[in-house]
Design goal:
This protein is an alpha/beta fold and about 280 residues long. Helix content is about 40%, strand content about 20%. It has a single domain, classed as Aldolase class I (TIM Barrel), CATH 3.20.20.70. α1 runs parallel beside α2 and α1 packs parallel to α8. The two termini are about 20 Å apart.
Length: about 280
C-alpha cells in the first residue's frame, strides 16, 4: 500500500506547444534540459516527463536524440525518465511507437483521441493497444494519460483485454484543463478518480494553464500525486512568468507541506511504479 504521506512530483519542463522564440527560458537544448532536471530534482521532483527539440528548437522524435537524452538524464540525475509518446499533434503514429527504442524507464500512453485546442491529438484504439503491448514487451512502465472520462472507461477496456502493465502497477495522470478535454475542476477530478479501475495503484493530476493551482489543491486533497512544469503553465500568477521549472516544483512542495506530505525520492518512485532496475 503506497504511503499516503509521500508525494510523487513529476516535472514536465518543455512540451511541444510553446516556441523558444515566445519563451526563451524554455529548456529546449540538452544542456538546458539537464540543468533543469538537476535543479528540479534538488527541489523535490522524482520523475521527468520529456519532450525534446531539434537544433531549431522544434519538436522532434528523432531516435538518436531521444536515446542521447535518456542516457544523459540517467548519467547526470537520479530521476525516473519518462518519454512522451505523444510528441506533437503533428507526429506520425509509427514514429511515436519508436520512442520506446530509446530505453526510457516509463512512457506516457494516452487512452484516446482528444480535441486539443484547434488541433486533434490522435490516439486511435489500434495504436493504443499496439503501444501498450510494446510497453509490456520492452519492460517500460506506462503512465496512462487521461484527458476525459471516456478515456477512463477506455482504461478499463484495455486492462480487461491485455492485462496489467510491466511491473504490475497501474499509474495514471489526469490531464485537465485542455480545451477539448475535461475541465480543470475539483468536481471533474473527483469524478475521474471515482471512475478509475480498481487495478489503479497510483494517480497524479496535471492542471493546464489557469487550472494549475485548483487541480493541484484538489489532487492533494484527494490523495493524488502531481505533475507540474512549463509544458503545462508559463505563469506563476497573472503577469508573472515562470523563469525556471524549479519554481513550479518549489510551489507544490510548499503546498504539500501544508498537507503534511513530503516529496518522494526517485528510488521511492521506482518502487511505487515498479520500474525495471
Amino acid at each position: 500500500m503506497p504511503d499516503p504521506s509521500k508525494l510523487l512530483i513529476t516535472v514536465a519542463p518543455t512540451g511541444a506547444e510553446t516556441s523558444k522564440a515566445d519563451c526563451p527560458q524554455l529548456p529546449t537544448t540538452l544542456d538546458e534540459l539537464l540543468e533543469t532536471a538537476q535543479r528540479c530534482q534538488a527541489s523535490g521532483a522524482a520523475m521527468i516527463h520529456v519532450h525534446i527539440r531539434d537544433d531549431q528548437h522544434r519538436p522532434t522524435l528523432e531516435l538518436s536524440r531521444l536515446t542521447e537524452t535518456v542516457e544523459a538524464l540517467h548519467e547526470n540525475t537520479d530521476l525516473v525518465v519518462q518519454l512522451s509518446t505523444g510528441g506533437s499533434v503533428h507526429d506520425r503514429l509509427e514514429d511515436r511507437l519508436k520512442v520506446l527504442d530509446a530505453g526510457p524507464d516509463s512512457c506516457s500512453l494516452t487512452m484516446g483521441t482528444t480535441n486539443f485546442g484547434d488541433d486533434v491529438f490522435s490516439n486511435p484504439w489500434p495504436f493504443v493497444t499496439e503501444l501498450y503491448q510494446l510497453t509490456q514487451e520492452r519492460a517500460v512502465v506506462p503512465e496512462f494519460e487521461l484527458f476525459d472520462l471516456g478515456q477512463v472507461h477506455a482504461l478499463h477496456r484495455l486492462l480487461d483485454k491485455h492485462g496489467l502493465p510491466y511491473g504490475g502497477r497501474v499509474h495514471c495522470d489526469l490531464v485537465m484543463g485542455v480545451p477539448g478535454g475535461m475541465p480543470g475542476t475539483a468536481d471533474a477530478l473527483v469524478a475521474a478518480v471515482n471512475a478509475m479501475p480498481d487495478a489503479v495503484t497510483s494517480w497524479s493530476a496535471t492542471g493546464i494553464g489557469r487550472s494549475t493551482l485548483p487541480v493541484a489543491l484538489a489532487a492533494l486533497s484527494k490523495g493524488g500525486h502531481l505533475r507540474v512544469g512549463m509544458e503545462d503553465v508559463l505563469t506563476l500568477a497573472k503577469g508573472v512568468p515562470v523563469e525556471h521549472n524549479s519554481q513550479l516544483v518549489d510551489r507544490v512542495v510548499a503546498l504539500a507541506a501544508i498537507g503534511q506530505r513530503r516529496p518522494m525520492t526517485p528510488d521511492e518512485t521506482r518502487e511505487l511504479l515498479n520500474t525495471r532496475r
